[in-house]
């Protein structure tokens, strides 16, 4: 009787809940809400009870054709594993992109030159670099003719001793992937303490041949590896401490030459959350969340990769800005702060406009990114759940800008 009852329960479940897999389409969760403070109309893209997360702000969010936003969820898939998903911006339709165990959803890399998605998958003790053909998957999903296992291609089998440290990134020409690695097993991180420092490095993978080679080794913990998406062969990385590093940002060429600090730090500087915004500039936050840090200028900073010149875009009230992003034309910046306020900054005039507020910054931060068309800012927000889970939202940029 118990087996029969269980069978009846499974049969009664919606098909998508019982058999969710690659290509499965989910109904739109898209809706509009009004920001109670700014009165801006925000577009909620996801509202799954388990929450969803956007890709980190250093990496692309939209497919190369601008139609879909790629995101990740550890609760949405029926198989109980963390998986990658896409939401079509126009319709809100959600499509599952990966399935099965071992998908490292923190490693999603959306290609800029083609509708491809790259990520790492670990199974049977080995990690593989995978390419997913999004055009083919989207077309077959829309036609209801998904082919099991017909969209992934293994690009490289990584060495047995591969240990991630800082994720991976695609070169601007998308012929090479760069991976942050630790060179020895780190000790456990003390609760509330800094990230243990162990020798680390960057490794390159040729996406045509699978060749794996060394770029550079460093004596500290590698973090936030990001290739300059506009200049082939240039990589920005950081020392990851989980807090204030003595010298956070560094830049190196893909052949291992030219390694140098980016923005040499004074002892009282706290640098974080760097992101490449155009061919020649990196935006980052010089933190001002304590009275001691405010003894010197702080705020959203932009450093020129070629001559080292720095522009200060200003600081917010309270504990200040935390994360930022910029448009490639050099006109606009966006920053969030510790209270979850999203502020647009005109880099030419310095004018600041609060676009939205009350996004809680928990269970994670908003990590804002400009859309490719410059009309929206994508965030992950705890607003609707009072900080218990994250929903993906689009914040509009005023047309009068």
Give a concise summary.
By secondary structure, this protein is mainly β. It has helices spanning 2-12, 15-19, 134-143, and strands at residues 25-26, 31-34, 41-44, 53-54, 68-73, 83-88, 94-96, 103-110, 116-123, 126-133, 152-157, 164-170, 176-182, 200-206, 212-218, 222-227, 234-239, 249-253, 260-261, 271-278, 281-286, 299-304, 310-312, 321-326, 332-337, 342-346, 352-356, 369-370, 376-381, 391-396. The protein has a 5-stranded antiparallel beta sheet with strand order 1-7-6-5-4. It has a 5-stranded antiparallel beta sheet with strand order 2-3-30-29-28, with no helix packed on it. A 4-stranded antiparallel beta sheet has the order 8-9-10-11.
Commentary on this structure:
With 401 residues, the protein is mainly beta. Helix content is 6%, strand content 41%. It contains three helices and 30 strands. The strands form seven sheets. Strands 1-7-6-5-4 form a five-stranded antiparallel sheet. Strands 2-3-30-29-28 form a five-stranded antiparallel sheet, with no helix packed on it. Strands 8-9-10-11 form a four-stranded antiparallel sheet. The longest helix is centred in the N-terminal third of the chain and has 11 residues.
């Amino acid at each position: 009787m118990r087996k029969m009852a269980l069978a009846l329960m499974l049969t009664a479940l919606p098909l998508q809940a019982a058999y969710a897999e690659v290509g499965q389409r989910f109904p739109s969760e898209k809706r509009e809400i009004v920001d109670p403070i700014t009165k801006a109309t925000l577009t909620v893209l996801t509202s799954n009870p388990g929450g969803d997360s956007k890709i980190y702000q250093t990496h692309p969010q939209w497919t190369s054709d601008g139609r879909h936003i790629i995101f990740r969820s550890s609760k949405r898939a029926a198989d109980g594993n963390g998986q990658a998903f896409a939401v079509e911006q126009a319709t809100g339709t959600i499509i599952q992109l990966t399935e099965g165990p071992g998908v490292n959803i923190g490693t999603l890399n959306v290609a800029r030159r083609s509708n491809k998605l790259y990520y790492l998958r670990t199974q049977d003790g080995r990690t593989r670099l995978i390419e997913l053909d999004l055009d083919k998957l989207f077309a077959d999903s829309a036609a209801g003719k998904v082919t099991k296992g017909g969209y992934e291609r293994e690009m490289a089998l990584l060495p047995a001793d591969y240990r991630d440290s800082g994720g991976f990134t695609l070169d601007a020409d998308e012929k090479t992937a760069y991976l942050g690695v630790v060179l020895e097993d780190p000790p456990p991180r003390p609760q509330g303490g800094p990230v243990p420092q162990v020798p680390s490095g960057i490794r390159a993978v040729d996406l045509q041949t699978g060749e794996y080679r060394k770029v550079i080794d460093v004596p500290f913990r590698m973090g936030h590896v990001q290739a300059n998406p506009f200049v082939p062969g240039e990589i920005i990385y950081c020392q990851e401490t989980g807090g204030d590093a003595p010298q956070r940002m560094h830049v190196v060429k893909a052949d291992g030459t030219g390694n140098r600090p980016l923005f040499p730090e004074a002892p009282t500087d706290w640098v974080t959350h760097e992101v490449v915004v155009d061919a020649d500039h990196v935006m980052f936050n010089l933190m001002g969340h304590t009275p001691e840090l405010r003894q010197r200028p702080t705020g959203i900073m932009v450093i020129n990769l070629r001559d080292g010149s720095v522009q200060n875009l200003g600081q917010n009230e309270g504990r200040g800005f935390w994360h930022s992003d910029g448009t490639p034309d050099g006109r606009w910046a966006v920053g969030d702060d510790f209270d979850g306020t999203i502020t647009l900054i005109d880099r030419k005039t310095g004018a600041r406009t609060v676009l939205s507020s009350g996004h809680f910054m928990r269970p994670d931060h908003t990590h804002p990114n400009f859309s490719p068309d410059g009309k929206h800012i994508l965030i992950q927000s705890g607003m609707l759940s009072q900080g218990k889970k994250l929903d993906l939202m689009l914040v509009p940029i005023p047309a009068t800008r």
